[in-house]
Design goal:
Length: 328
């Protein structure tokens, strides 16, 4: 059988961690023939470490044949040692009365330390997915803190937005969600993201022509997808966890195993594509093959789309400028 790969997960005792780890261990992320060693990171706090112990007991009790080892850590330098995949889920949530700048600063500290640790000890081919919010800017910070690793190894999760958009389109037009191709979400994982189905098809037929309702796009679809996270908090009293874990699995699986020519959405550092300044971590349509992603280039951007892209880009530039001094 294949040699085991190392998968680091931070925030492992949190809600997303609880929905994620069992699926990684059962082979849903990297394949049913790929043994994994889980390297789990939580904060040193006693309660978090105890909760992590409980999660590990449950992982053991699943007797997953592919689970070749489990480690619990409170230091990223140990958790990221030789890791092939790193899912950075743990982040500082926004507390009562916390300003956006405080949130950025608290997370800048976490993702600077974790980027440095990845730089020092991870596999040189490590694939990093940042889930913890603000995900795009946290990925940018980790990337900038890891100058010895290729920038392209750092990605942020836009896949939940992509999957939410697909599900809304399917419900609107009676498509099977799995038949939708060439959908994408541009920009920041935030309500400013731009879910774009202008290129989307179902069985070769244009989704836009089938729906043919620009008012629905602007007044219903985009706000519904953009505010879906808030709607789930309002309904469940907790933020989305299982759907977020599912999107993380989709993102990593497609990156590692290939999208077979299909588009998927990933937040990746720009090389200047579509006028997005270099290094901004931005949601783009990508295809993946042999462990590498490629941004789909040359798509036409109409005036409405350009306006949407400008808005989400302006937000990301603001976040980047907000952490500039913290990155020195
Ligand atoms: P929880 O609060 O349930 O769990 C987070 C866990 O991370 C906690 O156990 C905490 O102790 C741990 N943690 C905090 N700082 C850490 C550090 N420096 N190192 C290691 N562990 C650390 O949150 P959960 O619901 O699991 O959400 C986790 C993150 O995902 C949040 O930042 C959330 O905003 C973000 N989300 C991102 C999404 C995306 O699409 N990109 C969607 C879902 C989710 O809202």
């Amino acid at each position: 059988s294949k040699p085991a790969v190392r998968v680091a997960v931070t925030g492992a005792a949190g809600q997303i961690g609880y929905a994620l780890l069992f699926r990684i261990a059962s082979g849903e992320m990297l394949g049913k023939d790929q043994p994994v060693i889980l390297q789990l990171l939580e904060i040193p706090d006693e309660k978090a470490q105890n909760a992590l112990k409980g999660v590990i007991m449950e992982l053991e009790d699943c007797a997953f044949p592919l689970l070749a080892g489990i480690e619990a850590h409170s230091d990223p330098m140990q958790a990221f040692k030789d890791t092939d995949y790193a899912l950075l889920v743990g982040a500082r949530p926004r507390g009562p009365g916390m300003e956006r700048a405080d949130l950025l600063a608290a997370n800048a500290q976490i993702f600077t330390a974790q980027g440095k640790a990845l730089n020092a000890v991870a596999s040189r081919n490590v694939k990093v997915l940042v889930v913890g919010n603000p995900a795009n800017t946290n990925a940018y910070i980790a990337m900038k803190s890891a100058p010895d690793l290729p920038a392209k190894n750092f990605t942020a999760m836009l896949r939940l937005d992509h999957n939410r958009a697909a599900s809304q389109l399917a419900a609107k037009a009676g498509f099977k969600v799995g038949d939708i191709r060439k959908l994408t979400v541009w920009g920041n994982h935030s309500p400013t993201m731009y879910a774009d189905y202008r290129f989307a098809t179902v069985n070769g037929k244009s989704v836009q022509e089938t729906i043919n309702d620009q008012a629905w796009n602007k007044d219903v679809f985009l706000p519904t997808v953009g505010k879906r996270g808030a709607a789930i908090i309002a309904a469940r009293g907790l933020s989305s966890a299982a759907s977020a874990a599912n999107a993380a699995i989709d993102h990593m699986r497609d990156w590692a195993l290939g999208s077979k020519g299909e588009w998927v959405t990933m937040g990746v550092p720009s090389n200047g594509e579509y006028g997005v300044p270099k290094d901004i971590v931005f949601g783009f349509p990508v295809t993946t093959e042999n462990g590498e992603y490629k941004i789909v280039e040359g798509l036409e951007i109409d005036a409405f789309s350009q306006e949407c892209i400008n808005k989400t880009l302006a937000e990301l530039e603001g976040e980047r400028d907000g952490v500039k001094d913290l990155l020195k």
